[in-house]
Amino acid sequence: MIKQFKQHQKQLLVGIILLSVLLLGSCASFNTNEMFTISKKDNFQYDSIPLGPLNEHKICAGDRFSFSFSTNNGEKIIFGSSGAANPSNTSTGYNPIITQDYLVQLDGHVELPLIGKIKVEGLTTETLEENLELLLSNDYLLPFVQIRLTNERVVIFPGQNSGQVINLQNSNTSLIEVIAMANGIRTDGYANSIKLIRKIENKRVIYKIDLSTIEGLKQGDMFVQGNDYIYIHSKKRTGGEILKAITPWLSVFSSSLAIYALIIK
């Protein structure tokens, strides 16, 4: 009888060990929604934060931009929007204002009215404006062209289980402004652990930003640019995750103990 009891004890011990192994294995799956983690073994070095002005964005495939055009150095735009009478009354016979949104195709070309299909990939908006004015000057008097990118946006993750796409209205939008547009850092977010991931040519650079102190204000004033990813690390809810993970196992374990107690009686 004693030998049989010891055998039952061994079986119980084996069961507890197996359950512990299962629980430990499940711990590896906690906080699996965390993004952009960097292994400590990589000896990773963050890039220097650019606090000054950025290089102007170069148009690429998939960009969208608005195109407005008028003659006489934009005279129609000014007097048309203000409601004032046109004092010059020039007799050009044609003074259009054309504003429309256009998509840059995968081959880097775009189809524009009055001009046709031209390659715009790799150009800044300023260079494109100059090129279009030169082309239109063959047929129109003192053409005035304005180009504005309309699909510049950043993606921000301000805390756990939240993400937002922010459309940029201005080219000088700061990191602080983008965080404010996303309704601030969530209560579980770390203000001292923010990653800004930016694509420069064919690679991604990563800046680490600390906004937890007043010294971080300079970093918060850095300008964001289209296609930036802003990730704010959040607190790991390990306690709740562990409880959630082990609850079904505890139920199985307690049931096993109840069955075991009935057997050894």
Explain what you see.
- By secondary structure, this protein is of the alpha+beta class.
- Among the domains are: 40-54 and 152-234, Outer membrane lipoprotein wza fold like; 64-149, wza like fold, CATH 3.30.1950.
- It is 32% helix and 25% strand.
- The chain has six helices and ten strands, in the order H-E-H-E-E-E-H-E-E-E-H-E-E-H-E-H.
- The longest helix has 27 residues, at 238-264.
- The protein is elongated.
Number of helices: 6
In round numbers, the mean pLDDT is 76
State the CATH class of the domain at 40-54 and 152-234. Alpha Beta
CATH topology of the domain at 40-54 and 152-234: Outer membrane lipoprotein wza fold like
Beginning-to-end CA distance, first to last residue: 12 Å
| Range of strand content | 15-25%
